[in-house]
Amino acid sequence: MQKGNKKRQLRKPQHQPRPGNERKLVPEPVFDYPEKKASNKLRGKIALITGGDSGIGKAVAILFAKEGADIAIAYLNEHTDAKDTASIIRKYNRRCYLIPGDLSNERHCKKVIKKVMQEYKRIDILVNNAALHYENKSLEDLTTRELLKTFSTNIFSYFWLTREALPHMKKNSCIINTASVTAYRGSGGLIDYASSKGAIVSFTRSLSSNLVKKGIRVNGVAPGPIWTPLIASSFPRKKVAVFGSDVPMGRAGEPAEIAPAYLFLASDDASYVTGQFIHPNGGEIING
Known about the structure:
Elements lengths: L1 H8 L36 E5 L4 H12 L3 E6 L3 H13 L4 E5 L5 H15 L4 E4 L15 H22 L8 E5 L3 H4 L5 H21 L5 E5 L7 H4 L4 H5 L13 H12 L10 E2 L10
Parallel strand pairs: 1-2, 1-4, 2-3, 4-5, 5-6, 6-7
Helix pairs in contact: 2-3, 2-10, 4-5, 5-7
């Protein structure tokens, strides 16, 4: 097993322009386990997933569809990835509605919710997942443009989308926010990203308290290193080749390994869970 993990993490050095293309990753991420049978845990639900065209969002969208949900995906401009994801969802006999556009723009966030309501008439599950990051060696290298873009995408969009979605969410609906292991341990090269993810943790816990009497659960997932297009489009080629090798399991996780955490939080299995985070991170011990 150790040899297999070591071989898996020593991938080909590679880099892509932002935001990255999943098909061009070597190896391609694992986003589904077709052999695993579903249990209809989300039968009849409507789920909006941001950043659902690739990576973790793609795996979550596909798993939710397998479990019976119809899906809306808000994404930037990775149209090929989005269409690939939609085709898989439709093979599971579920609907998939694609909404391209920049989620760092408040007006577009409002438009996303409006379009989902026009298409599906309600929102049962909101997964705030879209994110980006810029690696910088020091705080002095971080530009204001990068800082504002990171926060607008990674946390402001969560506020805007959730605020617009809430009037359409009823009792037993749920919100799931994607944070990161960096929210808990920090990251010297991703100061703005880690800070935005820390804000997501506080947002999740505060919102859960605010909505608990309405019967709307709010939880989050804080992944460790996961093999997605974000990695190949953000880091130098040599760093990409060994990405994830520093965690106890010795490898990056696959999106399909993370998606079940979202399924648990979205399903009735988590009916007594709110304000909490799940930490699929390859064995890092996290306090908080």
